[in-house]
Specification:
365 residues, alpha/beta, 2 domains, 7-stranded mixed β-sheet, 13 strands, 44% helix, globular, disordered C terminus
């Protein structure tokens, strides 16, 4: 197939798979219109002294305050626990990790057991609320009347290497099933989850997926199998995050620890579509006939750049220049995925934040 044929296939797949990035409605409402149900914010934290202060500060600055903020100190060796106390958070020391559990799920589970609110809001320590973000999230959750709401925080990046997360974010959204014309906003993102406490414990909470690396996606899929409604959205203008700010190695390890495992949680039809899409992008970029039709190649390339930018701008502070460098992002994605595949399915071992995760035994030790 020549460059025109491959290019058209790639464009059509890109449009179909990335037709929409579902965003939360962010209108403000008077505080007294909110339900009086208490919200418990639960933050699993392991050596998060560099980030947790920003999250706790953003919570304190909100016009509407949660019932409580629970920081689950997961055996941190830095100042995480001290910083949490300084901001007035309720600190729970995570018990020793039992056999069969992974660390984050164990921390979330123990945080939920100490919560007094009717609504649980799980947040990673590298996230934070925007101005009035908590009010917007609370209102949106109550308005949607869903038992579970999964939010992908808007990715704020400051250094060039952080932008290498671009393709990973797109694949995560596609895999969740929320971006296609037939998507129903179901899926799961790992950084932020809001759910009714009663529904959480009714399905067994994080205990039900205690050995899963991609915990929130597994939890939502488990909830859906039990008839619990769950929806997923981008958190633009509501909740932000900054991932992997410790150098390009943190980007590599961060995505590499779980991405291959996450592919096993993706439905087979969507997995096939993602493989076809990635393959078509590589085929278009390496097609020899592009040398004979450079103007056609350039036109198709620019269309793909605009399609990438259209989606990426709602996921993080990606620029048009970042989108134009999608071949670099694609190559990085491929290399990290191969690394993740080898660690997950060949070596069956990976690590994160000082913990070794033995995948064959599904434990975090």
């Amino acid at each position: 197939m020549n460059v025109i044929g491959i290019g058209l296939v790639t464009i059509l797949l890109s449009i179909f798979l990335l037709l929409k990035i579902p965003k939360m409605k962010t209108k403000l409402i008077p505080k007294d219109e909110l339900s009086q149900n208490g919200f418990s914010i639960i933050i699993p934290a392991r050596n998060e002294e560099a980030t947790i202060g920003k999250l706790l500060s953003s919570i304190m600055s909100q016009a509407v305050q949660p019932l409580e903020v629970i920081v689950v100190n997961d055996h941190s060796t830095d100042r995480t626990k001290q910083i949490a106390h300084e901001y007035g958070a309720k600190v729970v020391d995570n018990p020793p990790l039992p056999l069969g559990w992974l660390g984050k799920s164990w921390a979330c589970w123990n945080g939920a057991k100490h919560a007094n609110g009717n609504i649980l809001l799980f947040m990673d320590a590298d996230t934070w609320f925007t101005e009035a973000g908590f009010l917007k999230a609370v209102h949106f959750f109550q308005e949607q009347k869903k038992s579970i709401l999964s939010i992908h925080p808007y990715h704020q990046m400051k250094r060039g290497y952080e932008k290498l997360s671009a393709i990973f974010h797109l694949v995560v959204f596609i895999a969740s099933g929320v971006t296609t014309p037939f998507g129903k906003k179901r899926g799961g993102f790992g950084q932020c989850l809001i759910c009714e406490k009663a529904a959480y414990f009714a399905i067994g909470g994080h205990e039900s997926i205690k050995g899963e690396i991609v915990e929130n996606l597994a939890l939502i899929q488990h909830a859906s199998s039990k008839g619990i409604s769950a929806h997923s959205y981008s958190g633009k203008a509501v909740i932000s995050m900054r991932m992997y700010q410790d150098g390009i190695g943190s980007v590599w390890k961060g995505w590499g620890k779980s991405f291959a495992s996450g592919s096993t949680r993706t439905s087979f039809p969507r997995l096939v579509m993602i493989i076809l899409w990635i393959s078509s992008l590589f085929s278009f970029l390496t097609n020899r006939s592009s040398l004979e039709q450079p103007y056609v190649f350039a036109i198709i390339y620019m269309i793909l750049v605009l399609l990438f930018y259209r989606s990426l701008k709602d996921i993080g502070n990606f620029t048009l220049l970042d989108a134009s460098l999608f071949p670099v992002h694609l190559l990085f994605f491929f290399l990290v995925f191969v690394y993740s595949f080898i660690r997950t399915f060949v070596l069956r071992n990976t690590s994160w934040k000082g913990r070794s995760i033995t995948i064959s035994k599904q434990k975090d030790g």
